[in-house]
Structure prediction request, 61 residues.
Amino acid sequence: MALKEHGDESNVAPDYHTQTLSIHPPSFKAPVTFKGTATTKKQARHYAAKEACEFFNIKIS
Prediction:
């Protein structure tokens, strides 16, 4: 929930891709990615990485 709320505040929505790994016993995998929007590929990657770092409290020098 916190990840989605942070994404909503910063206009960088996390994206989930849930997969079922096993039915018995139930097992699922849900990787998440951050998406950044910009006018260039490089800038979009930068925005997405920056948002992920801020969410996880990773200091950027």
Remarks:
- The mean pLDDT is 82.
- The first helix runs from residue 2 to 10.
- The beta strands are 14-16, 19-22, 27-29, 32-34.
